[in-house]
Each structure stands twice: as structure tokens, then as C-alpha cells.
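call fold(seq) -> C-alpha cells
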Amino acid sequence: MHMPTFSAQHRTAVETSIEVVSAVHSSDLDRPTPCSGWTLADLLAHMTAQHRGFAAAARGRGADPDVWRTEPLTAAIAADPVGTYTAAARDVLAAFATPGTDEALFALPDFGADVTVVGETAMGFHFVDYVVHGWDVAAALGTPFTLPDDVIAAVTPLTLAVPDGDFRDTDPSPFARALPQTDDDAFARLLRHLGRSPDWDPIPG
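ret:
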């Protein structure tokens, strides 16, 4: 029994997302985000629902589609975006820290019908998501976003393993098509691979 080699770095990424979200005020919730068509409220509802879904999956209840739904979170996010998000983030960290979770099977219906993967793989998916979603929130707020070098090094092979292709043009895809690589910065390269422009601005032009 072992924890994934990236466990510490994953925890740092999620804790960094908590720190970024702690700056959100209710007045920010209508801000645009790098996720096309999503306001900050939409993004936080998605992030919170994913935490809840992955936590449920770690506890053997991921096959229930209700644990992944964003709709029940709308009012809670509007009333208390920071508290609602933080509680879900802390819960998934606790669920992932349970011994044996890396070897358990995670049902991930949000990723496709009948999708089941081993825990370590599921944790890798979650790690990639919260590295990029932490940046998404910071970009929407216009605040800096920095991750330690060891976190970027740990998430890089997982991120570059995310395939590109036509499927990224479909609504269920969490990432847009990869953008041309024009940066030397390691984190910028990851963002571009996941379809984000490191220079994204909420006010184009």
C-alpha cells in the first residue's frame, strides 16, 4: 500500500486553490473566466462539485450521478463562495488521504458512462484539474498565481498525457484544443497544452 508519488504536490495545488478562492467576494461572481461561457460562479460551482464527486468516488459512491451535480450548489456558492468551496476542498483532501485509496476503484460517471479507474489515476486527473482551475480563478480575479517548482514538475507528465484532438471541441471536454507552444515558461506550456492562453484577459483588447 502506498500513496501516489505526487500526493504532497497534489495537496499543495488544492491548498493553493483554497488560498486563491479565499479572495473571492460575492460581487466577483459575475466575472468572466478563461473557461469559455462560464462566470466565476459557474467555475466555482464546477470546482466544488468535482471535489464532492471525487470525494464520493474515493469512498465508493462515485457511481451516483447526483454527487457530481452542480445545480444544488448554485445558491450555496452565491451565499458563501469561500466557505462552500473550502469545505469541499478539505473533504476531498481527507478522502484521498485514507490509506488504500490509491488502489481503490473510482467510478467517474462525470467523465463518461461506466468510466472506472484506479484511485491513483483518478487522483492524477484531479491534480491536473486543480492546477489549471486554480489559475482560472486567479486569472478571473486578476491576481497572481504561483505554484512551487516541485508541483509543476510533478503535474507536468500528467498534463502532457492529456490527449488533444477533435473531442476537445465537444461540450463534455474539460479542455479546449491545445494552443501553439510559444513560451519557455514551464507552467505556461502546461496552460497552452490545456487550451488556455497564459495571457488571457477578462477584457479583450
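The CA atoms of residues 63 and 190 lie 30 Å apart.
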